[in-house]
Amino acid sequence: MDVKLERINKNFGAVQVLKDIDLVFPSRKFVTLLGPSGCGKTTLLRMIAGLEPVTAGAIRFGDRVINELAPRDRNIAMVFQSYALYPQMTVRRNLGYGLRVRKTPQAEMDAAVERVAGILEISHLLDRKPGQLSGGQRQRVALGRAMVRQPDIFLMDEPLSNLDAKLRVTMRAELRRFHLDLGATTIYVTHDQLEAMTMSDMIAVMHGGIVQQFGSPGDVYSRPANLFVAGFIGSPPMNFVTGAVAASNGQAAFKSPDFTLELANGSAGGAQAREVVLGVRPQDLTLVQNPETAPVRGRVWVVELLGSEKLVEVMLGDRRRLTVQVRAETPVSVDDEVGVGFDPQRIHLFDAKSGIALRS
Amino acid sequence: MTRNEFWGHTRRLVSYAVLCAVTFLVCFPLVWAVSTSLKPKSEIFSTPPTLVPHTVTLENYKALITGRPQYFQSGDQQVTSGTTPAQFFMRWFVNSMIVTLGSTLISIVISTLAAYSLTRFRYWGRTVVPYFSLLGYMVPSIIFVFPLFLVMVQLDLTDSLLSLVLGYVCITLPFCMWLMWAFMRSIPIEIEEAALIDGASRLQVFWQVVLPTALPGIIAAAIFSMIVSWNDYLFGRVFLNSLDNLTLTVGVMLFFEGTHVDWGLLMAASVLMTVPMAILFMALQRHLVAGFGAGAVKG
């Protein structure tokens, strides 16, 4: 079932936390709400769950407006960041609670609980209480409680953030697999871009109560709609240089105090003589052997080894630095004079005032 | 033995000695009461005093429980005492039970609902009420006795067990409410939301999720309330006067009245008085142990 948000607004007192949100979560897709803390993503999820009233706008499940529907009538399931297991109930009762309050016959309930416990490999824990489980096991129980009722829509509020790094990677893959098997619409909230990129069919990047960009992970990464998305997505973060676009010899060029860069045809998008911000990912920059021929020159300020890669910070002018990601075996050390090579196809230009991407 | 070992042993020895001394101080009166209650009258004042009775008798307990008239020696004649406190003992015991359970029940119901409302709903004053309520408990209860007595006179409730129930609710409710408020605050709201999404109604959430989670808090508040009500003397002394309506604490004091004090009977009454509270503690103490809410949210 698809979920449509139409001009959703949310105020807490005088504070507006969500502004005119329009989103469509397509049926059976895994959609992530991604953004820094305080961007309104959890509030939005809670509104879809029915735990938070809608100030203005409409939420539709399919064609039906469900703004006023109680959570229990929405046929949704939610996994909370804190897991929110019922502490005095055993795992079996935790899993079955949703079926029990809906007066499911005992035999059917037992079968459903056993089935889910089997899938999640927690069958041996069924008679324990949440207090006797590890973090990862509790996480699975919380997931199982959501799966057992076979809901139309799965809501997940940062379900992996309390797990250690290694378990998180495993669970990421498992969550993705469960989503494919269950075939429910999943709405996933996280501030972790890696989770969003690896698991989602679509990502809605949120900031300041506004959806900044809604698109596939590839889209959001390679065609960021604005400066916020460009800076938020990608690790290490994108380099930004402020400058202006000017024409020289009939060719558009980006000019900053430190360097001038010829732009590929049309990439300036008619930004002539405007203040712009040039963005380029560290992965899209190269170190050039002979600095004299490179358009951009600088001195190596610091080198960080990541394992298979190295991050090289190149100091351009007084304070401006560019981060360049190169193979670990690249011979480069601190204080070397280096040139930085750009691929004109892989740079992003943004309007300095509005922050919106400039495209032809 | 090394120097360290020596000091280790010495320290253990000293701490055990101190613990033994404290235990003795606490237990001796109780042991003495039990011992006296089991002695025949002739042995109670024997010199040297005996800690373990030479002759063990259950006469005192029998007298209290069956409530039959006592005989005592007057000159060389055995005479009945007429109406004695011992005859009323079981009646007072039941009275004490009624007021204790009644006031505790009312206190717990009100304080649990109040605490739930204070922690879950938004309205004016919800942040200050618990503190004022605690402040109310800090005022010595003797200050409330006479105003409350006047209220009971107005309500025409004096010399009734109901007056005592209401009086005890007045002194136990503020603290119970504060305790339950602190406890309810520690119950994560997410488990209620999870239950709402799972399909429970508001009432089901309260009954099936909130109350079981709050049980240790409820037990703590109930124990507090029962101890206060069971052990109270002041309210009973002021509110009640007919022999039939007295509670244990007030009634047992009557054993001192007149010229004759039957220590054996008095001690047996004291022992019987402590039994319910002792049972209560033994039955419920494991629920008081912390760790109740562990596992609800990440631990």
Tell me what you see in this structure.
The complex is a heterodimer of chains A (360) and B (299). Chain A has 360 residues and is α+β, with helices and mostly antiparallel strands. Chain A folds into two domains: 3-232, Rossmann fold, CATH 3.40.50; 239-351, Beta Barrel (OB fold (Dihydrolipoamide Acetyltransferase, E2P)), CATH 2.40.50. Chain A has helices spanning 41-49, 91-101, 106-120, 135-147, 165-182, 193-199, 217-222, 227-232; strands at 3-12, 15-25, 30-34, 56-61, 64-65, 76-79, 153-157, 185-190, 202-207, 210-215, 239-248, 251-255, 260-262, 275-280, 285-288, 296-305, 309-315, 321-327, 337-342, 348-351. Chain A has a six-stranded mixed beta sheet with strand order 6-7-8-3-9-10, with helices on both faces. In chain A, strands 13-12-11-14-20 form a five-stranded antiparallel beta sheet. In chain A, strands 15-19-16-17-18 form a five-stranded antiparallel beta sheet, with no helix packed on it. The radius of gyration of chain A is 25 Å and the shape is elongated. The relative contact order of chain A is 0.12. The model of chain A has no long low-confidence stretch (mean pLDDT 90). Chain B folds into two domains: 3-85, no CATH class; 86-294, MetI-like fold (Orthogonal Bundle), CATH 1.10.3720. Chain B has helices at residues 3-37, 41-44, 59-66, 85-120, 129-138, 142-155, 161-185, 189-198, 202-231, 234-239, 248-253, 263-288, and strands spanning 71-74, 77-80. Chain B has a two-stranded antiparallel sheet with strand order 1-2. In chain B, helix 4 packs parallel to helix 7 (161-185) and helix 4 (85-120) runs antiparallel to helix 9. Chain A binds chain B through residues 49-51, 70-72, 74, 76-78, 80, 82-89, 97-98, 101-102, 129-133, 135, 138, 145, 149, 162, and chain B through 188, 190-191, 193-201, 204, 208-209, 212-213, 215, 291-299.
